[in-house]
Amino acid sequence: MELKRFALIVAGGSGTRMESCTPKQFIPLHGLPMLMHTIKTFHAIKTIDSIVLVLPKGEMTRWELLCKEFNFTIPHRLVEGGATRFHSVKNGLASLGNQEGWVAVHDGVRPLVTEALIEKCFNAAQGAGNAIPAIRATDSIRIGQQPDDTSATSRSTIWIVQTPQVFDLQKLKSHYSAPWNENFTDDASVAEANGEKINLVEGERDNIKITTPSDLIFAHAILTNRGEMADK
Question: Mind listing the domains of the chain with CATH numbers?
C-alpha cells in the first residue's frame, strides 16, 4: 500500500530584513502574497494528501483575511506556531496525529520551489529514509567567528541546505520529542542529533529563501521567466 504524503509549510518569519513591517510570508510577489505561491506548488502535486500551514498565532486572522481577499481556496489546515522554528514544526507534526506516511517540511518563504524538486525529495526519501535538498557552494568560503580571525576552507566540502526536507512522519515526530537545542536550524539537524543518517539530494539554485529586498526582485524575475502570469 502506498503511504500517504503530507506537506508541512512553516511560515513564522518577520519582515525585518525585508525592511518591511509586513511579515515576509505575506509580502506581495507577482500579484499574490508570497506564501500563496508556495502552497499552490505543493497543491499541484496530486500525490500529496494534505497541506498543513503553521503560522504565528497573531497572524492567523491576517492570513484568513488575505485568503478571502485573493479568493484563495486551496484546502489546508492552519496550526499555531511556537516560539522557534523547532516548536512550530513540532506543533505541525503533532497535528498529523498517528498517521503513517512521508512528510515534507518546507519554509513558506521559499516560493520558487518546483514540483520536480518536491517529487524528487519524496521519491528519494522512500529509498533512503529521508531526503534533504542541497546545492554545492560556488563562492570561496572562509570560516571564523570574527572578521579578523578566519581561515579558508574548501568549498568542495560545503553544501547549502534547502527545503523541502522529507522524512518518515512518525520518525520525525519522535525526533522532535527531544528537547530544543539552539543548533537545531532545520529538520535534518534535529534528525541527525537523534541518530538518523542524513541523505542529500541535488537541490535547485532558484530555490532560495526570500530574506532581503534583492531576493524579492530575483524571485519576481524567475516567476516572470517561467511564464507565470502575475495575478491582478
Answer: 2-132+160-224 (3.90.550.10)
